[in-house]
Design brief:
241 residues, Rossmann fold, 8 strands, 2 domains, two-stranded antiparallel ribbon, single chain, 10 helices, alpha/beta
Length: 241
């Protein structure tokens, strides 16, 4: 079972959303990389990022929504046991990143370190929208190379080609277990509270799903799993373009 997980992909692919959903399914602690990396106004970088990542990844269970900033990338990949790769099309990524950045800019949403995305920032090459467009191919190639790098083996790689494939894959994972609350009835209780607690517990627990497995065609090192809906599009792909 996956215990140490990186959700990888280009900026705007939906890594944080996927990582949060996966953390809830597997009951694995989630860590938001940008929240750790940017800790002050003016996008001030955390000078203690490396020791902080070392401390977190020394633990037995964790998930990050990133394939790692350069100074911590090899550390993360050497300690991970699974990569969930959101290998979505450029069109999907650009729709998502443009919508996210536009919303943050218009609403003046405070993000990491209390920073906001400004109109002036849209003109800079490191703005998320520009970064997603210009770095799409190179980031895709680097993730593919790392997934096949024997330095990081063995790795379980789940390569998801579409958002629908991602949702379907999540549905194959076990639903999180929720403990049903116990109600201690006193003398003269009608029992209505017991019934309500039981019903609430059932609603929270939800249906249980059966976890499935599938292999990526043509892969050798490392082992890979691919959502069924994405298998056909992955077949015959040797390297990202």
């Amino acid at each position: 079972m996956m215990q140490k997980i990186l959700v990888a992909g280009i900026t705007g692919a939906g890594k944080t959303t996927m990582a949060r959903a996966l953390a809830a399914r597997l009951a694995v602690p989630f860590h938001e990389m940008d929240a750790l990396a940017f800790t002050g106004p003016g996008w001030q970088q955390n000078p203690h990022l490396l020791p902080e990542i070392e401390r977190i990844t020394a633990g037995p269970r964790w998930i990050f929504d990133s394939f790692g900033y350069p100074e911590v990338r090899d550390l993360l990949w050497s300690r991970a046991d699974a990569i969930v790769w959101l290998d979505f099309s450029r069109a999907v990524v650009m729709r998502r990143v443009l919508r996210r950045s536009a919303t943050r800019t218009l609403l003046r949403t405070r993000v990491f370190g209390g920073n906001v995305e400004t109109l002036a920032a849209w003109l800079k090459p490191d703005h998320p929208a520009w970064w997603a467009w210009t770095q799409y191919a190179s980031r895709r190639a680097e993730i593919a190379a790392r997934c096949a790098d024997p330095r990081f083996a063995p790795l379980e790689v789940i390569r998801l080609r579409t958002p629908r494939a991602g949702r379907r894959w999540l549905d194959t994972l076990p639903a999180p277990t929720v403990l049903r609350p116990r109600v201690i009835r006193g003398r003269g209780s009608s029992g209505a509270d017991d019934h309500g607690a039981r019903e609430q517990g059932r609603a929270l627990a939800g249906p249980r799903a059966i976890r499935g497995r599938a292999g990526v065609p043509g892969s050798s090192t490392p082992r890979s799993r691919l959502a069924p809906a994405a298998r056909r599009s992955a077949a015959g792909t040797s390297a990202p373009s």
